[in-house]
């Protein structure tokens, strides 16, 4: 019989029929026996366990009656099962049967964790939560369950549903909370993780009068810092089977990797370098990222590296951005298949600038760098080869000769194992003999490499015509591909690909497919021999162009399509540039922050001859928008502005160039453009376009602090985006509502909008947006006087912006740090931060920001007592504010001049003028922002 104790009591027959055990005492008796794992339990102890301090009058007789009931119930369901309950001198015993907790333990011990979790139906021994006899067993199983969750989480697997349910049962368990916080963070819900920690801290204080322990507090800090090791990056490809025969190689590589920052695994194709590297990555304790180089050209490496590291590449010069982003990270970077590229200089630069970086490379030859530790990955030993072949084929007799002839190359063994069951050992040997004789006079080179080719040759000849066509046509794909893509590009049915998976010629992971390196190279040769390279590449380009064009990046499909296009990034990169493709992908690149990749692709497409004027103009507009904040690309942005002269009434172009430059261009010109865009979108009944343009117009009204206009446009935009179910749009629309709430001192509303925006941004994987909104929360903390919290949030936002190589987000975060430093009297820190960003704003033409920073530097000078410098800086800020017509900025500069003037009467007049100006635009200075004004008033009054 089958007994379940992982949750409510469950009893089933061997046939799977449920058995109802009547009477609470009988069920408790059965659970007591189960908890003792076949050990006898005395009658006295059972009586005590069942009735406690109030046993029945004839306790022994009553116990015997309950035992009889249990035996009868079991026997009625499964004849002969009454014998399971035995009685001897030491007491009663449950002698046999399958118990789910035993299976559960075995699965956990052997690493079959998902199977273990599948047995868990709730708290162990849930029917007897208050009985002492089950306490130790329940605690042991509960902790084992938590161990399984920890192990799964450490592998990068999602355990959030399990931890969420368990938290309700164990609200004070800090170990469980640590797993839960990590699961929330890895699910992209960093804000929810921070809230969960705050809730736990409150509960611990209320219930126990204690704070979270040091390990949990350290985890909280790591989450605040967006510590890369918490995310661990995208999950590494999961192995389909066990790693066999590599224990020594694995141990040696782990030792070398612990002691050295560059380790290269060297060996021939098919020897298992990639498999060993991935195993090392899965066992590594820090953030691990995988860069697959096999499908890449030299020019694609930096872009692919940025993608692997989840970094934006907004700069035309990507390498400095990458180096800056990696500077503070603890990271293992696996660089797979290096031999066809020149990587020495890049790897040397990465290691020199990023002290927390380790590189694990796989190649057919060393990189040739000083300090490189080279480990040769040899073929398997004879015994290991036999073990691998037996495990993969299921055949145990007479395979040693086959393994010897295959030279211990794992790929050759894997391929051969798929055929031995059909051909038999002798048939397989005969075919290998024929093949080896055929290759005996072949090309020069190591015998084991020619043996591998022989194995693939042999596997090729066993394929059907359709399978050969499919395999060779798959060679045009880069990285991974979908089942649909394989079928469309090859023009063959999907089941042909699945047949190749079964024959170990195509690898499958999580619904995606890819060719092993050696098989890909072989297949490309066969494609060339068939004269199909050009035609197949054209089909590949057509398929992926159509995929890009059908992507729904507006509305409810946005999240799904973003992730789908992420998966296909490598395939898009190998397609020859065309205006159709770059125009289709431009919005995706923008949302993902891949400005550098976008600019390079757009520029290449624009430079092609004989292009359609309309498509070319559209690409120029995209290119101009992608350069909006790039100090090195102002000429391109200017060209984009000129392109607007020829676009007529195309509202998309008017909106995009306005949206990307709203904080940097001429406010009057930008407002004219956005009104024109709104009119165009309205005329063609484009609700998404109207919503997007309204959100941009709301942002432009920030300049004049027109709160009514800001709210009106933002709320209408948010309403439309809600109807369209577009999360990116919600982020855009909510931004100005946040600013309006902050301007008017409604910090509670601003916080609510910010927290919701962070959830949407994390869900979409838009980490730059997370940075901006996190810095926004930092501003609220600053205004409410919580300087420690303000610094924590701004630093968190800064680190995230730096990781994403986004200058605008980094500037916003560091200006917040500068404001906090100034308010706390750390004037040198404030001056350093403000000066750093003043130069950048001058390069990109950010006039409002230039004026604001001049005023902040003026306040720094005034707080130091250097009133002459303060007056000069505030006057510069005033001139710029009047130039753009920003009433709030004018008031800020007047208030600064008031604090710096030596004449008390003049100071009070300036403050009155500033207050009147703020009242005129309907946004008087909130109490939380009177830090500088109140100081100016006190100084003027003291000198009057």
Automatic annotation (TrEMBL):
DNA-binding region(s), residue ranges: 1-96
Domain (OmpR/PhoB-type): residue spans on this chain: 1-96
One Pfam family recorded for the sequence: AAA_22
InterPro entries: AAA_22, BTAD, OmpR/PhoB-type_DNA-bd, P-loop_NTPase, Sig_transdc_resp-reg_C-effctor, TPR-like_helical_dom_sf, TPR_rpt, WH-like_DNA-bd_sf
Keyword annotations: DNA-binding
PANTHER family documented for this protein: HTH-TYPE TRANSCRIPTIONAL REGULATOR RV0890C-RELATED, REGULATOR-RELATED
Family: Belongs to the AfsR/DnrI/RedD regulatory family.
Name of the molecule in the record: BTAD domain-containing putative transcriptional regulator
Source species: Kribbella hippodromi
């Amino acid at each position: 019989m089958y007994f379940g104790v992982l949750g409510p009591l469950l009893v089933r027959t061997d046939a799977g029929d449920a058995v109802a055990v009547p009477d609470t005492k009988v069920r408790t008796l059965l659970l007591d026996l189960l908890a003792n794992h076949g050990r006898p339990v005395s009658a006295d102890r059972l009586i005590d366990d069942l009735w406690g301090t109030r046993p029945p009058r004839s306790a022994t007789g009553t116990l015997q009656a309950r035992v009889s009931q249990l035996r009868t119930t079991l026997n009625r369901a499964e004849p002969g099962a009454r014998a399971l309950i035995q009685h001897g001198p030491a007491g009663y015993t449950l002698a046999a049967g399958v118990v789910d907790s035993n299976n559960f333990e075995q699965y956990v011990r052997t690493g079959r964790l998902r199977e273990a979790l599948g047995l868990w139906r709730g708290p162990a021994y849930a029917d007897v939560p208050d009985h002492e006899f089950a306490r130790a067993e329940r605690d042991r199983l509960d902790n084992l369950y938590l161990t399984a969750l920890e192990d799964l989480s450490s592998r990068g697997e999602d355990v959030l549903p399990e931890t969420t349910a368990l938290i309700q049962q164990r609200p004070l368990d800090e170990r469980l909370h640590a797993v839960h916080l990590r699961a929330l963070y890895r699910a992209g819900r960093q804000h929810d993780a921070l809230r969960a920690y705050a809730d736990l801290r409150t509960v611990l204080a209320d219930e126990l009068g204690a704070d979270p322990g040091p390990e949990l507090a350290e985890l909280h800090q790591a989450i605040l810092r967006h510590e890369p090791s918490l995310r661990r990056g995208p999950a590494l490809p999961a192995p389909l089977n066990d790693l066999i025969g590599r224990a020594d190689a694995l141990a040696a590589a782990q030792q070398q990797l612990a002691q050295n920052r560059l380790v290269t695994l060297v060996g021939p194709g098919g020897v298992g370098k990639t498999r060993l590297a991935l195993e090392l990555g899965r066992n590594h304790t820090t953030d691990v990222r995988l860069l697959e180089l096999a499908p890449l050209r030299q020019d694609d490496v930096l872009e692919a590296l940025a993608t692997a590291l989840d970094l934006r590449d907004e700069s035309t010069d990507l390498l400095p951005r990458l180096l800056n982003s990696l500077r503070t990270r603890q990271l293992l970077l696996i660089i797979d298949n290096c031999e066809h590229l020149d990587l020495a200089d890049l790897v040397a630069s990465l290691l020199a600038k990023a002290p927390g970086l380790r590189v694990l490379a796989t190649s057919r030859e060393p990189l040739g760098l000083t300090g490189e530790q080279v480990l040769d990955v040899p073929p398997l030993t004879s015994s290991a080869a036999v073990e691998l072949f037996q495990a993969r084929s299921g055949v145990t007799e007479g395979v040693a000769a086959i393994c010897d002839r295959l030279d211990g190359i794992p790929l050759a063994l894997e391929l051969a194992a798929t055929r031995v069951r059909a051909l038999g050992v002798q048939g397989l040997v005969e075919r290998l003999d024929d093949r080896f004789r055929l290759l005996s006079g072949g090309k020069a080179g190591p015998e084991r490499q020619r043996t591998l080719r022989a194995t693939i040759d042999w596997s090729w000849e066993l394929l059907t015509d359709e399978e050969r066509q499919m395999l060779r046509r798959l060679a045009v794909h880069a990285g991974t591909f979908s089942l649909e893509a394989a079928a469309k590009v090859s023009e063959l049915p999907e089941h042909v690909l699945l047949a190749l998976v079964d024959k170990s010629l195509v690898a499958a992971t999580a619904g995606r497919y890819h060719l092993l390196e050696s098989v890909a190279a072989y297949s490309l040769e066969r494609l060339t021999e068939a004269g199909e390279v050009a035609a197949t590449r054209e089909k590949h380009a057509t398929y992926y162009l159509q995929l890009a064009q059908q992507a729904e990046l507006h509305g409810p499909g946005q999240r799904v399509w973003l992730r789908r296009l992420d998966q296909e990034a490598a395939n898009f990169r190998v397609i020859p540039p065309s205006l159709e493709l770059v125009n289709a992908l431009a919005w995706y690149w923008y949302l993902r922050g891949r400005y550098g990749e976008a600019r390079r692709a757009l520029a290449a497409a624009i430079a092609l001859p004989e292009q359609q004027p309309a498509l070319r103009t559209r690409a120029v507009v995209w290119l101009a928008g992608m350069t909006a904040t790039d100090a090195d690309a102002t000429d391109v942005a200017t060209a984009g502005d000129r392109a607007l002269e020829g676009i007529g009434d195309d509202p998309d172009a008017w909106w995009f160039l306005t949206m990307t430059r709203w904080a940097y261009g001429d406010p009057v010109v930008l407002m004219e453009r956005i009104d024109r865009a709104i009119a165009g979108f309205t005329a063609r009944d484009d609700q998404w376009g109207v919503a997007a343009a309204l959100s941009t117009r709301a942002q432009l009204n920030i300049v004049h602090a027109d709160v009514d206009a800001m709210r009106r446009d933002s709320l209408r935009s948010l309403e439309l985006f809600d109807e369209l179910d577009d999360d990116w749009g919600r982020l855009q629309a909510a931004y100005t509502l946040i600013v309006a709430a902050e301007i008017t001192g409604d910090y509670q509303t601003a916080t609510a909008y910010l927290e919701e925006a962070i959830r949407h941004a994390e869900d979409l994987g838009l980490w730059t947006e997370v940075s901006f909104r996190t810095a926004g929360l930092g501003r609220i903390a600053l205004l409410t006087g919580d300087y420690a919290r303000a610094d924590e949030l701004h630093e968190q936002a800064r680190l995230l912006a730096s990781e994403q190589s986004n200058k605008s987000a980094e500037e916003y975060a560091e200006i917040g740090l500068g404001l906090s430093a100034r308010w706390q009297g750390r004037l040198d820190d404030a001056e350093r931060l403000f000066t750093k960003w003043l130069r950048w704003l001058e390069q990109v033409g950010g006039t409002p920001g230039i004026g604001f920073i001049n005023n902040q530097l003026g306040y720094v000078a005034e707080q130091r007592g250097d009133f002459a410098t303060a007056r000069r800086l505030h006057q510069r800020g005033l001139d710029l504010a009047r130039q753009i017509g920003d009433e709030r900025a004018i008031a800020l500069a007047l208030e600064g001049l008031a604090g710096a003037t030596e004449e008390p009467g003049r100071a009070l007049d300036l403050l009155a003028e500033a207050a009147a100006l703020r009242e005129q635009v309907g946004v008087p200075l909130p109490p939380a922002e009177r830090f500088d004004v109140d100081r100016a008033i006190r100084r003027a009054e003291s000198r009057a």
